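Give me the fold.
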Amino acid sequence: MKNYNPTQDYYNYVNNTYNQPSYNQASEQTNLYNPYNGFIRGNMFPELYNTYKVNQPFEIKPMNEQANLLTFIDALGFATIDLNLYLDNFPDDRKALELFNQYRLLKEEYMQEYQNKYGPISLNSDSLNTYPWMWIKGPWPWEK
């Protein structure tokens, strides 16, 4: 348990360093959350995760297969963005680059599966190149 030091805590608060992470930036990241756990925590890096006022992150419980697939696509999308930000700072981390590419390809695979089952997922979807215009084809999520 952290010892409470009012003077130091106030100094950290005033100087905006209260939630600053401390980690070894020179080492490669090997211990990462999986995409879902990183997604619900908002951070792929356990040593940087700060619970703030929430001891347990909110678990997403999809109601059906479509929602489950969307949750997984969102989690993979988050993981690629977070790893992209990390790689911007540490471009020589081969393991992070391999993981980034693995998640990126997996996301594309699941997006294709989603589109085959449920229709276009974004305006960049290949399935929008068909006639008639598929974007407005229902049902919309709120119509169920």
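The radius of gyration is 20 Å.
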